[in-house]
Every structure is written in C-alpha cells, then in structure tokens.
Specification:
The chain is built from six helices and 17 strands. With 254 residues, the chain is α+β, with helices and mostly antiparallel strands. It has a seven-stranded antiparallel β-sheet, with no helix packed on it.
Length: 254
C-alpha cells in the first residue's frame, strides 16, 4: 500500500496477493453483510454464500469461521458449528444419526457454559435431550426453508405447492404422518430441504381452525379428531383455534 502511495498508482490488492492468499484473507475478514457487495473469485464460494444467505438456521458468526465438508454417507453439505450457535429447526449429524433441534437452552454449571438441546431423531421420531459444552463442535446440515400450501393427498405422498414458483412438491407420507390430523386442502406449512431438493421435514402451521362436534363436560371433540379443554361458553358447532404442538385451545378465530 505504501509503494502504491509513492508511485501515485491506485492500490490493487489482487496485484499484491496471490489468488489463494486473497481468498483466504477475504474469507477471514468479510462479514455476511458484505457478501452482496464484494466480488467472489471462485464459483464454490459464491454458491456457498448464496445458499447460506437463504438459510436462516446458520448464523453469520458461523459463516465467518468457514469449516465446510460433506457427509460421506449422504453427500449432504454440512458445516462445523459450536453447540451454542444451533437454532431451533437446525438439522445436525450427531452420533451417526440425523436430528432436528426442537428446543435450545443455555446453562452454566461450575462456571462452564453448556447448551441444552431437545433433539428429534428424523428416522425414528423419538426425542432425546443432550447436554453439550457450548463450544462443542457438531456438524450442521445445510437446509433451506420453503413455505408451501397443501394441494391434495394420495396414498403414499402428500402434494404441496410452492406459492412463489407454483412448483409442486411430492412429500412422502412418512414425513407428514405425525401431523396428519391437522392436514387438509389449503393448509399452509413449511418444508426443510437439502441442497439436492430432498425433503427432510415438514412443519405445520402453529395453529389450525377446527369445529366442535361434541362436548364432554368442558372437553371439546373437534371435526379433525383433536380434543382440548375449552371455556364454558364454547358450544357444539363453534369454530375454535387449536395449538398444533400441544393441542391446547387458543381462542376463537379472529
């Protein structure tokens, strides 16, 4: 830079650094906010960041550390992250299985920071709780979140549509089965997909509207088969909103 100043010529970082050193320096100092304005000199870096910008489950701090690899079994692209950086909904490769992070919490014991994670096995559907050191490394799978609308159901798949592109997406019934009672034509939800467009998980809306068909004391039985405790003023034929996660009564539709 001093030589450029003496000669009166503009400073050109690329003329002073080799191609590999320039990439290393850029990846070390560039924050996520600068991705859109800085030139990326290799296709793999450009693709990496364009994918990550669309992925709200990977934090900016993780992107700056750069430790990308591929799962040898599935070929999925993954990034090494600290347990404290994981967010709800993240997909991780842990102890030889794929888990979705359902809940995160922080804990400090004897001046040591830990991350408490509720993990759901994506194959078995079982849930486990893991306690990890906050700086423990785990492999997070690259995924993208796609909002969808349910079109119709077939014997082995549920067909959704991306309202932005109008593309149809066939999702195996094994993915949507846990939420089957909440599914009907027009229901909105979201899919988590890997970079090869494979569907990993389906998330239903946070609440659904149902109609009360029978009352048992203060327990309402709805047309979708969900039962929940309701206030005394709710009667047969009323429409109510029900929380999908714990099937609790939320109120009347607004």
């Amino acid at each position: 830079h001093r030589d450029a100043h003496k000669s009166g010529r503009p400073f050109n970082a690329r003329s002073k650094l080799s191609r590999s050193r320039e990439q290393a320096a850029w990846l070390t100092i560039a924050p996520l906010q600068a991705v859109r304005t800085m030139r990326l000199h290799t296709p793999q870096h450009k693709n990496m960041f364009s994918w990550a910008e669309r992925n709200p489950l990977i934090s900016a701090s993780v992107l700056q550390r750069q430790s990308f690899s591929r799962d040898p079994a599935s070929g999925m692209r993954q990034v090494s992250v600290e347990a404290a950086d994981l967010k709800k909904g993240s997909i991780i490769d842990y102890k030889g299985a794929k888990y979705q992070v359902m809940k995160t919490a922080a804990n400090v014991t004897n001046r040591k920071a830990f991350a408490l994670l509720d993990l759901r096995d994506m194959v078995k559907g079982s849930t486990v709780q893991e306690k990890m050191r906050s700086d423990q490394k785990v492999n997070q799978i690259f995924v993208k979140k796609v909002k969808v609308v349910l079109l119709y159901e077939e014997s082995d798949v549920t067909v959704f549509q991306d309202p932005k592109t109008f593309d149809t997406i066939n999702v195996p019934k094994s993915v949507t089965q846990p939420y089957e009672k909440f599914l009907s034509e027009g229901v909105e939800g979201s899919l988590l997909m890997d970079e090869n467009e494979n569907v990993l998980t389906f998330s239903p809306p946070s609440k659904v509207t149902a109609t009360v068909v029978r009352m048992n004391n203060r327990i309402a039985v709805t047309d979708i088969g969900v039962q929940c405790q309701v206030p005394p003023f709710i009667k047969v034929g009323d429409a109510i909103e029900v929380d999908v996660e714990d099937t609790k009564y939320l109120g009347r539709p607004s």
